[in-house]
Amino acid sequence: MIAHALFFYFFSIIAIISAIFVIVSRNTVHAVFFLILDFISIACLFIMIGAEFLGMMMLIVYVGAVAVLFLFVVMLMNVTEQKLSWFRGSKRSGHIPTGLIVGSVILLELVVIVGGWQYRDTFSQTEFLKFDSDFTNTHLIGNVLYTEYIHLFQISGIILLLSMIGAIVLTYRKREGVKKQSYIKQISREREDSVKLVDGEFNKGVSIDD
Amino acid sequence: MIAIKFIIPELFLSISIFSLIIIGVFLKKSFEIIYRLTILVIISIIFIIFSANFETEKIFNDSFVIDKFSIYSKLLILVSTFFVLLISKKYIIDIKNNKFEYPIIILLSILGMFIMVGSNDLIMFYMGLELQSLALYVLAAIDRDNIKSSEAGVKYFILSALSSGLLLYGCSLIYGFTGSTNFEIIAGISNEFKIGVLFGMVFILVGLAFKVSAVPFHMWTPDVYQGSPTSVTSFFSVVPKIAGIAIFIKFMYLPFKEVLSEWQYILVFMSIASMILGSVAAIGQTNIKRLMAYSSIGHIGYAIAGIASGSENGFKSTLVYISIYVVMNIGAFACILLMKRGGKYIEDIDELSGVSKNHPLMSLGLMIILFSLAGIPPLAGFFAKFYVFMAVIESEMYTLAIVGLVTTVISAFYYIKIIKVMYFDEPRKPFEKFVDYKIHGSIFISCFILVTFFLYPSFLNEIVSKINIF
Question: Which of the four CATH numbers 1.20.58, 2.60.120, 1.20.81, 1.20.120 does domain A2-128 have?
Answer without folding.
Answer: 1.20.120
